[in-house]
Amino acid sequence: MTIQRILIVSGTHGNEINPVWAVKQFNREENRIKKGIKYEYIIGNPLAYGKGYRYIDADLNRSFDESKKNHQQKKSIYEINRANFLVDQFGINGSDPCQIAIDLHTTTANMGTSIVMYGRRFKDFCLAALLQNKFGLPIYLHEKDKDQTGFLVEAWPCGLVIEIGAVAQNFYDPKIINKFLIIISSLREEIDKLKNNLIELPKELIVHVHQESIDYPRDDKGDIDGLIHPERTNQDWKMIKKGDPLFLDSQGIVHKYDGDQFIWPVFIGEVAYKEKKIAMSYTKKEVLFCQNEWIKEFESL
């Protein structure tokens, strides 16, 4: 295994400030180089972080799609230029190449501490299995969503998002910060154990696979005309079935889930997703059997 550097990105969204604090604290307390694996730390969107904004011109965590980056008219967008800088600096062919990228995020939704994956790369599965086995973290496997592309970790050979909530934007929460510290400090240890054949993957990996995202009820003007139903508030990762309530509109009408299959909603009421017209995302639970091929792929980094 040739892993030399792990890129730890905080502040990809500038109003998610707890990961930035956690990384600063971790960097003060830990050596940058340990057991041959070095951490590289970077604030993903420093300009937005300084202003307390989610982004300046566009969502940085949707700006790593090559088709978006190559459009001539996109060159003036701050986040496109920032994405180019991060890849040129820390990408696998960059001046300070990192083999793994870990992108730290917070959410206003009640997601707890969770992992977000994009697609089914074996290297990602391997790393996610290690963390799920140690901490029992739920995994949101985000795939097959043509409206949501260009995520930061996809620009590296291996990468995961660590998502922790609920916490308000631009609000420091010591409990949230401590959870990030635990994950960051454990990450290198788990990789080192795997590197030295001191750990095996669990038999199974449980993932919640993205199916679709749904919007709030809206009126004729396009304004939101419904609230997350009280029975659905803070119920991320909890299964719902046909007839269960989703929204309560201004007329007092309950909007119910009308699908025939069980689903598990995530990012319920995430504040930042209102602009994307997402009230919550539906997932299905899937159990994957861990494979030796995952380890082989990971060892090829």
Defining traits:
3-stranded antiparallel sheet; 13 strands; globular; alpha/beta; 301 residues; Aminopeptidase; 10-stranded mixed sheet; single chain
Please name the CATH architecture: 3-Layer(aba) Sandwich
Measured on Cα atoms, how large is the radius of gyration? Answer: 19 Å
What coarse outline follows from CA principal-axis ratios? globular
Order of helices and strands: EHEEHHHEEHEEHEEEEEEH
Q: What is the average of the pLDDT values? A: 93
The CATH homologous superfamily is termed: Zn peptidases
Describe this structure in words.
Helices cover 26% and strands 25% of the residues. The chain has 301 residues and is α/β, with parallel strands linked by helices. It has a single domain (5-206, 289-299), classed as Zn peptidases (Aminopeptidase). It has a ten-stranded mixed β-sheet. Strands 9-10-11 form a three-stranded antiparallel β-sheet, with no helix packed on it. The chain is globular and about 60 Å long. The termini are close together.
Q: Layout of helices and strands, plus pairs?
A:
Elements: E1 5-10, H1 18-29, E2 33-34, E3 37-43, H2 46-51, H3 66-69, H4 78-90, E4 100-106, E5 112-118, H5 122-135, E6 139-142, E7 158-165, H6 174-195, E8 204-214, E9 226-228, E10 245-249, E11 254-256, E12 264-266, E13 280-289, H7 292-299
Parallel strand pairs: 1-3, 1-4, 4-7, 5-6, 6-8
Antiparallel strand pairs: 2-3, 5-7, 8-13, 9-10, 10-11, 12-13
Helix pairs in contact: 1-6, 5-7
